[in-house]
Amino acid sequence: MKSPTRRDSTSSITSTGSRSSSSRAAPRPAGHVILDGQIGTLNPVEVRDATPGTGKGLFATQAIPRHALLFAEEPLLFAPRGGDRVSNHRVRQLLEALDRLPPRRRAAFQSLYASPAQLESVSDGDRTRMRNWYMDVKGLTDRALDEAMASGLAALAAYRTNNVAVLDYDDPARPEGVIVGGVVYSVFSRINHACAPNAAFFYLGVRSQRLGVRALRDIAPGEQVFVSYLGEKAGRELTREQRQEGLATWGFECACDACMKEAQAEAAAKENKGVGK
Fold first, then answer.
1. Where in this chain does the entry annotate a coiled-coil region (predicted)?
2. In terms of C-beta distances under 8 Å and separation of at least 24 residues, what long-range contacts does 150-154 make, across chains too?
3. What pLDDT band is residue 131 in, cutting at 50, 70 and 90?
4. Taking the model in full, what pTM does it have?
5. What pLDDT score does 254 carry?
6. Which of 68, 71, 229, 262 maximizes the CB count within 10 A of its CB?
């Protein structure tokens, strides 16, 4: 998943409170739950290389009817967050969360796409806190410290690229909710964006953070699966300029079919306006 208003760089928002419409726990789909990124044989999808510049993508391996469940997935990693971005004082907690991952899950996390824009945006304060953690907690110095820093910065960029914000509505002073953490998924993070997607995600019980993806229309064998990072209604309610602005946080300019058609229509309108002068 290329990773932006996922608030900062979060693809979506789940909640620990009761106001979300997804708080009604859906039945657990037997045989479809993915653990540590392993897709069961009942799931008609696979992760493989997508078009150049988009990294990996999720593809249908057979015809998928509208409304069908593609897969459901357990969280790969949860890390506390604060504010609308990954706050400086949360870097240590992210490193601790990564350090607790078993080898298989850590490898799954490290294989996720990390936006170069997210890597470039890491502040000097974040870098200092990360270096101090490796020195104070891990006792690293010299070359080992440099190697750990390179790995840690890549992990931070991957987290910021792929995490899904978790909102808590328990604070009456913040009725819009407070971001308390970020969740990363193994397979969901592989799905690329489209402003007119063919699939959508939902939560199977808010507190479990178990996520499912369903088809919005019939999907043909070999067709790539897309979701909207900005929400299902973004393609209808936001202009192309507004969508591009939101997606810029992920470090890419959307060139999906919907955006290309709108861009062509805008260019044609400008040309016609110029002719009429």
1. none
2. 151/110, 152/95, 153/119, 153/122, 153/127, 154/110, 154/114, 154/119
3. very high
4. 0.73
5. 86
6. 229
* pLDDT at residue 33, rounded to an integer: 55
Other C-beta atoms lying within 10 Å of the C-beta of residue 121:
17
| Three-class HEC string of the chain | CCCCCCCCCCCCEEECCCCCHHHCCCCCCCCCEEECCECCCCCCEEEEECCCCCCEEEEECCCECCCCEEEEECCCEEEECECCCECHHHHHHHHHHHHCCCHHHHHHHHCCCCCHHHHHCCCHHHHHHHHHHHHHCCCCCHHHHHHHHHHHHHHHHHHHHHCEEEEECCCCCCCCCEEEEEEECCCHHHCEECCCCCEEEEECCCCCCCEEEEECCCECCCCEEEECCCCCCHHHHCCHHHHHHHHHHHCCCCCCHHHHHHHHHHHHHHHHHHHCC
Average pLDDT over residues 9-21: 39
CA angle 262, 8, 5 (to 5 degrees): 35
